[in-house]
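Slide 14.
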Amino acid sequence: MKYLRSARIFFFLSLLLMACLPPKRHIKVYLIGDSTMCEYPASRAPLTGWGMPFSLFFDSTVTVDNRARGGRSTRTFISENRWQPIADSLQEGDYVFIQFGHNDGAKGERYKARYTPVPDYKNNLIKFITETRTKKAIPVLITPVARRNFDADGNIKESHTEYSAAVREVGKTNNVPVIDLDARSCALLQEIGPVYSKMLFMQLDSLEHPNYPNGLDDNTHFNEYGARRMAELVLAEIRAQNLELAERIIQVPEKNNRVYKHQSVALTRYSPLSSRCWAKAKYSGTTSKPRYLRPSSWLTTATCPEPRNGSSTTSPGSLL
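Slide 15: predicted structure.
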């Protein structure tokens, strides 16, 4: 009886303490970057920036404001006056997630207006950091996400060596959290392999999707599934680095389906299959795929062979 009485007292004191705690302050998470992160209209589906699914993983205390724009480098994002309105709007406790590099490193004649030398790139990152901190907001640097680029031996090739190194250096020097999406996405693509990694990108046969009747061969931009996988890598790093934002990530049971509002497409939150098995379902014919069928339909219907070498069939998304 004494133990039961003590337990009841502890329970009611816990409830009282929880009732006295102030509610979480509403914050904004700004995303600034390029086409791999930005939002797209339904008319360009299944093209999806990873910032689109990313915005749906947080509770009601978080608003994700995706200001990323295709074709922008750090330099043009500033020169086109895209950064200043964000800096002016920042409130204490807000976050700014910064991912550039794809266009900063574009040296070709066609892209010379975007090109930003590494020293200028670093200075622009420091500008974002300094002006974010001036408003008592929190900057987070992200290395540029990898392209699907394999050598003849099936090894993923580094796409952003100088710029990713610059992000890490600026982060270390300025004590800013760095999410190494370049390294994490390279590791994911290497695990999946040169053939099956196509399933994450805008790789479409002719007539496979009504928005792209001539097909598409794009190894930089993601489809819905690829964008979600990249978003999950970022979310996993938010938790691994113990950012306060991690407390606001929605707790979703495994295998729970969610609807992605931007295209009203039901996607499996956690696939019971690995990416390798999921991709194998399409390429080896273990399940049929009618025209225009969304990738989510294959995730839970494919028959996957037993994992080799003791590997797990749980999606890396379950790390969240």
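Speaker note: The chain has ten helices and nine strands.
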